[in-house]
Amino acid sequence: MKKISRKHFLSKSAAALAGGSLLATACGTDSDARASGGAAPNIQTNKTYRWKMVTTWPPNFPVLGEGCQKFAQWVEEMSGGRLKIQVFGGGTLVPPLEVFDAVQSGTAEMGNGAAYYWAGKIPAAPFFSTVPFGMNAQQMTAWLTSGGGMDLWEELYAPYNLIPMMSGNTGVQMGGWFNKEINSIDDLRGLKMRIPGLGGQVLTKAGGTAVQVAGGEIYTNLERGVIDATEWISPFHDYKLGFHQIAKYYYYPGWHEAGTALETLVNKAKMEQLPPDLQAILRTAAARQYVYTLSELETQNAIYLEKMQQEGVDIRPFPPEVLSRLKELTAEVLDELCSRDARAKRIYDAYRAYQQRAQKWAAISEKMFYEQFA
Ligand code: CA
Q: Looking at residue 244, what is its pLDDT?
């Protein structure tokens, strides 16, 4: 009995190593072609494809935008120049928050951003970027890659003629920049803060006001007092924007973004017009972009945290009672979301089940390891 299941496992593994689904697609196409007596219709090895990628990131945006440029370069190299992708920063071809629509309609063949930007259109979308007190980068990656998350994501985007791929992760973000101390939950009351997504809804429940401000305008808004506080990303990007010059306190952790997954969107019809090898190249380059983005941010955030510490930036943790109250309010926000959107409930049930199991493992692995730090 054991022997049979081991053999079955090995044959399954071999198929996976050989690129099982790609192989199946290619063979299917081939036999269909033979049956109809002609060559496979979509294999045109000499054809050059020119694609456009629109992004939510400002042009030349460090790491996240640069990752898209590298993606295009890798695709061109791997395809021997048969697939050329031109990358457009946010606002250069379409506005940053119209990336989803642009790829859905085929204005651009692909896009790059984060799923929580589409929450207004698809309330369940944030589960594929991040939710407050949600999974970290490692857990999110595992859920999407081998825990069933990707199937749910593909299913969610299918009605929009879109194929999602994971193309990066920011890791744990910072809590943000404040000009007053946050000693209790009441200090958030009346606070006007730039904080997107479900985190913004949690702040609203705490009595604050969540404001949406595009990346390029946050500094001026904070400097002029249009907003009282802001979150952005982590030490590297935050230092580059200069928030330490105009805000007194830099709080951690980013309770609202524990490991935000970034996404590549591909127009499904356009994808299906590509020969199978170019489709595989796109997926492989997205996976490489994922590793690049996560690693580059890990490296740069550590360097820039040290820089901020040396320059005397006041970096401090939220008090535990503030975090535990925010966690309670997060549960309310998620319950409300699930009660009004059936797709959100289905996805969150799967997300939460995975998270709870992963946390038990983390409690005796990662957590114990981190507690040994000096
Ligand atoms: Ca953020």
A: 97
- The least confident of 21-30, 37-46, 152-161 is 21-30
**Residue 131 C-alpha to ligand 1 middle, in angstroms?**
11
Span 172-191, average pLDDT:
98
Asked if the structure places residue 99 within a domain, the reply is yes
The tokens for 217 are 């305008």
Please state the domain count of the chain: 2
Mean pLDDT score, 199-228: 93
Residues spanned by the domain of 238: 176-258+313-372
Ligand 1 centroid–CA 257 distance in Å is 7
17 Cα–ligand 1 center, Å: 36
Q: What is the 176 CA–ligand 1 centroid distance (Å)? A: 8
For residue 235, how far is its CA from the centre of ligand 1 (angstroms)? 11
Distance 233 CA to ligand 1 centre (A): 4
Average pLDDT over residues 50-63: 95
CA of 64 to the centre of ligand 1 (A): 13
Assess contact for 297 and 103: CB atoms under 8 A: no
Task: Give dist(CA 246, CA 234) in Å, integer.
Answer: 16
CA of 157 to the centre of ligand 1 (A): 23
Helices marked H in 79-164: 99-105, 137-146, 149-157
Both tokens of 133, joined, read: 């007190």
- Give the residue from 268, 298, 328 where a domain finishes: 298
At residue 43, the pLDDT reads 56
Q: How far is CA 79 from CA 26, 41, 49, 75, 281, in A?
A: 17, 19, 10, 6, 7
> Among 275, 282, 271, which Cα is nearest to 106's?
271
| Residue 201 belongs to domain with CATH number | 3.40.190.10
C-beta separation of 326 from 200 below 8 A: no
Which tens digits make up the pLDDT trace of 302-319? 999 999 999 999 999 999
